[in-house]
Every structure is written in structure tokens, then in C-alpha cells.
Amino acid sequence: MIILKNIKRLKGNKPVKLFLKIIISILMCGIYLDANPKIILEKDVVAMVNGVKIHKSELDRGVKLLFPARYFHKTVSNDKMKTFEKEVLDDLIDSELFIQHAESINIKVSKAEIDKGISYAKQTTKDFDVALKNAGFTLETFKKVLYNKELLKKFYEAKIEANLSEDDLLKYYEKNKYKFKEPEKIIAKLIYVKNDPTDPKGKEKAKKRIEEAYKKITDGEDFSNIAAKYSTAMSRIKGGDLGYVHKGMLEPSVEKKAFSMDSNTTSEIMETTIGFFIVKVEDKVEPNQLPFETIKKSLKNDLKKKIEEERKTSLLKKLKLAAVIVKQL
Question: What class is the 2-166+297-327 domain?
């Protein structure tokens, strides 16, 4: 989810140079405005979560924040914009559910922490009061935004964040070694002559071309030079060199033949529905078990992300089942 990913980046209170960036990013955390639930929402209210309103202004700010990154200023249809607005609103609702849950389990944000945020904003912003007004905040509503931001950060650290030890990673690695194997690979060169289906004599021409290439190779000419001259594949610019090839990268019948060949051997001509092939296998690399130290860092990142996403999804599902949510979009 957008919000918790942003909150994670805020962990450790890293400085944010521009005050307006702070305001825009933390707007996504939601603000308590009313605790009286109504089935019919007011004109400027787009959703209500257990009686707490989410206003259209919050949605608009969220869309404005994320729209450029998502669409790179390209023209977007009304339907796509509506879909995007629904995504942002769902994220705001999720955030509000987490805020309410954090308070219910007694996660606290002190006045001193809020004051520290205000002090930092004043120190890093020219004409703080003017900037605050231009952003549509009063000091009190801005304090509430800071409160929500800090509350979500603490909630993430307490209930979502996965702190994995090296022992945790090693145990996972030992139980799942099959996931950390480099597959069998070959180092190969290729000559491919395309059969042009728009030419009635396309197959005949392609066959003649590949046969000329094959004869030159069997006569002892350099494979790379012949590939550069006869192949119609883009690899011809590198003398047909494909580098390392693993299963799934070649046309199936060509791949089957290539992986059955010995190192430093050249195939005969192979005909397929798309044309003709000659493959030279220069070397073969057997499957290899990657050592723990090699994959430890990437494993930690991947496993941490997976666990945290599962925790968020599971908790959010429970919170939604117990919540009263009204949406206008």
C-alpha cells in the first residue's frame, strides 16, 4: 500500500528539506474530523470509516501527489482517472483503519514528538505561517497530520515490521534450497534465417540461404563471420553471440536440441515454422547451488517484504470485517 510504503521511508525521522513536501506526503495519513456517522455523506465527504470522515480535499491532494508519478503528465481519460481516484481513496481508508487500530492498542504519540515536528518544520521553512496557510492548514490541523504520521510510523514498527536475524534467514535457506539454484545454462551462438510468410517463395529462399551458411561452416569458415553475414536475427551484429542462455529463451525445438549438445559442437540445420536455425554450443554450465552468503542480502529484502505484506493484508482484512465503511465514489 502507498501509505505504509511511504511511512517506512520516513522511519528514523530523516530530514525532509521542503516543508510543502512534508505537508503533501503526510496528508495521505488522514485526519479525524467528525465522529458522528451518517449514511448519506455530505457533499465534500467521499468516505466515512467508523464515523470518521475522509474529505474530498484529502482525496484531491492524494491524487495530485501521485498522479505525475503514475502517468508522467500524459493525458488520462475520465474512466482511468476515476479508477485512480478509487485506488487513492481505498488507500486513505486503509490508513484510517490502521490509525484507529493503533490507538485502540494504546500506541502513543507524545506532545513532545509533535512539538519536535513543528519545530523542524519552522526551522526548514521560510515564512512558516504563510506556507501553512497556503497549504490549507491551521496549526491545529497540521498538528493532527503530524500526529497521524508519527502514529502510523510507530504502528508499522510495532506490528508490521519484520526484523529478521541471520539465523532466521539461514533456517529459511536450508528449508528452501531448491529456490536458490542457478539453472543449467549454455554459452551459444546462433544463425537464424527467417521464413518470410508474405513471400510465396519465402521458405525456399530461407532454406537456400541457411544451406549456404551451413556449407561455409562445415568447410571451416568462422561461425561468427557467417552469422554476421547470413543471420537475420539481431544477434548477427555480435556474430550470432547469445551469451549465456537458459531454458525458456529459445524456440522450443531449437532449445531442446541445443541443451542436448556437447560443448564446442555445432548443430545441423533445424527447420521450424518461423524459419531455419543453426546453433553452436561453446560451453555448458551445470545447475549450481547458490551459497547462503551470496544470496543473504537479497533474501533478507525479499523475505522481509513478503512477511510485512502478509501481516498488513491479514490485519487489514480483520479490521475491514469489523468496520463500518461508507464510500461515495
Answer: mainly alpha
